[in-house]
Amino acid sequence: MKAIVYYKYGSPDVLELTELEKPIPNDNEVLIRTKATTATSGDCEIRSFTFPILFWLPLRIMFGIIKPKKNILGLELAGEIEAVGKEVKQFKKGDQVFACTSGRFGAYAEYTTLPEKYAIAIKPSNMSFEEAASVPSGGLNALHYLRKGNISKGQKVLINGAGGNFGTIAVQLAKYFGTEVTAVDSEDKLDMLREIGADHVIDYAKEDFTERGKKYDIIFDVVGKSPFSRSIRSLKENGHYVIAIPSLFKILRGLWISKTSSKKVIFEFAKDMAEDLIFLKELIEKGAIKPVIDRYYPMKQMAEAHRYVESGRKKGNVVVSLANNNGTGKPESNKDINKSEYRSDIAPA
Fold first, then answer.
1. Which terminus of the chain, N or C, has fewer Cβ atoms within 10 Å?
2. Where in this protein does the record put region Disordered (predicted)?
């Protein structure tokens, strides 16, 4: 099978297209033929190993101190089940699925195995493989953090870093839950954020949301760059400051704030669960969530996909097709795709 591998940490140039043996599923596993995956900020961080100092040593021990222990990246995928282990009950050969690979990674290969208990669900009927591949990681994280913020109808929610894969789904989920959403990101992403439902948008380069004098029930900092003290002041009483990428400073101060006031600081990592992915599937099929896809790349251009993600210009998701060989990574046929006006459908030259 073809796979994108890396044997050392570094720039996108460490990614190589190679041939590997097709894996064989264990008794409790499914073998998935991957049709599409994504290039995410998480994949790029692991490849280059650019993590905050708080997480550097434990993650280096987990992923490999000198060189990577796992040589195939990829946090999410969509594809078709090719085989199942004898203990598998929920899936069968031929099922079209989407999944989050969690700490196993492995989506950057034509075939991957995952335990049945992982976050795997039948693909939404109104999505292509390429669209479905862009949902699991960002969707599961966005759902987790909004729930941790005790989101409920009528609240005011601010999402900082709303233009990426987590943020674009978080905006749509927050609207689904009946809240008033303020989205913060760069100027070139604001129109897209309005289109997917944001009630208010802020260009972070021109305005500090904490200086507006407005109070929020939830401040969800997707990128971990909001000013701590001013964000706490921008919370209503009993409000939740949710930080997806916390620094040690924010963790320590957050513990103190949560203990000594009515405001809560949340930084608990998401657990990828199949029931949550099924919930997202149902919302997608009802039209409550649509993916934001900036660019498509073919498998052979994975390094270019990573470079684009690291440029900071990405709107929503960057999808990599392993199934289509038309040179662009775009779906070869759109007849079964529920097209979204939010997709720019840009392919690299």
1. C
2. 322-349
What is d(CA 103, CA 74) in angstroms, rounded to the nearest whole number? 10
As a CATH number, domain 2-135+291-321 is 3.90.180.10
- Token pair listed for 286: 């009802």
- Helix, strand, or coil here: 200? strand
| Amino acid found at 268 | E
**Per the structure block, which two tokens stand in for 99?**
């999944």
State the Cα–Cα distance between residues 267 and 270, nearest whole angstrom: 9
Domain ranges of the chain: 2-135+291-321, 138-266
Q: Which residue ranges of the chain lie beneath pLDDT 50? A: 333-349
Q: What is the mean pLDDT of the chain?
A: 91
Question: Mind listing the pLDDT tens digit for each residue in 97-133?
Answer: 999 998 899 999 999 999 999 999 999 999 999 999 9
The domain defined by 138-266 carries CATH number 3.40.50.1980: no
Q: Residue 43: CB partners within 8 Å, gap ≥ 6?
A: 73, 74, 75, 306, 309
**What ranges in 149-260 are assigned the alpha helix state H?**
165-176, 190-195, 228-233, 248-260
Cα distances (angstroms) measured from residue 189 to each of 166, 289, 327, 330: 14, 18, 27, 22
* Residues in contact with 24: Cβ distance below 8 Å, sequence separation at least 6, in sequence order: 31, 113
| DSSP summary character for residue 346 | B
Is residue 171 within 8 A of residue 159, CB to CB? The reply is: yes
Of 121, 150, 109, 130, the closest CA to residue 20 belongs to 109
